[in-house]
Amino acid sequence: MQQFLREYLQVHGYWVLFVGTFLEGEAILIFAGFLAFQGYLSIYGVILSAFAGSFLGDQFYFHMGRLKGPALLRFFTRFARKFRKGLKLIERYGSFVAFISRYTYGFRILLPIILGMTNLSARRFLVLNLLSAFSWAIIFSLAGYLFGKGAELFFDDLEKYEPFLLLVLAGLTGCMWLSHFFAHRWRRRRARARLKRMRAWQAEKENVENEDDID
């Protein structure tokens, strides 16, 4: 089984990683980092593939926003709902958003598209995207690699416990995703509650004004 996995990853591992990081990629990159520690992949090949996929992905989304942004707003209501929130982030933090966009949960693909619809120059985005993709590829690939290093301190024979360690790693990345998901839901619930209070206060104020007019 391990020999089959090694041969499969040597043939298909890097392009699968490239496609995964073109789309999203944190989880697949962490797994690739661990597999690099186990010797199935090269850590340098993992970083290079992740960098290429992440960089080219955001370049694609940026230019999609520049060419097709208004059409996307018209045809995709979910994109339109998030557009204002993403635009507020850009207005508040400026070009820094171009650097951190791939680190933001729920806006990984959306922010480059919105950035393409702003007056941010393509050259400036290119530079920021290069730096961001390179740092992102190193951080998350080394996270998986160092997970293997840490496991080596507790287990003498990692190959024997490899399926168990992959399950643990899947659980950790799943917990990371769930924490982002529930934090996002909690913030959205608070925002809705705040909006409800504001509407109730406005309605009460209007009722008082109407009563004063009657008197």
Q: Shape, please?
A: globular
Main sheet, how many strands, which sense, barrel? Answer: none
Number of folding domains? 2
Amino- and carboxy-terminal Cα gap:
85 Å
Polypeptide structure, described:
The protein has about 220 residues and is mainly alpha-helical. The chain folds into two domains: about 1-155, no CATH class; about 160-215. About 85% of the residues lie in helices and about 0% in strands. It is built from eight helices and no strands. The chain has helices spanning about 1-25, 25-35, 45-75, 75-95, 95-100, 110-115, 120-150, 160-215. α2 runs antiparallel to α3 (about 45-75) and α4 packs across α6. The chain is globular, with a radius of gyration of 23 Å. The termini are far apart. The mean pLDDT is about 75.
Write the layout of secondary structure elements.
Blueprint: H1 2-23, H2 26-37, H3 43-75, H4 77-93, H5 96-100, H6 110-116, H7 122-152, H8 162-214
Domain VTT: 25-145
Transmembrane segments: 12-37, 43-62, 125-148, 164-183
Protein name: Membrane protein
Short overview:
This protein is mostly helical. It has eight helices and no strands. Helix 3 packs across helix 6, helix 3 crosses helix 7 and helix 4 crosses helix 6.
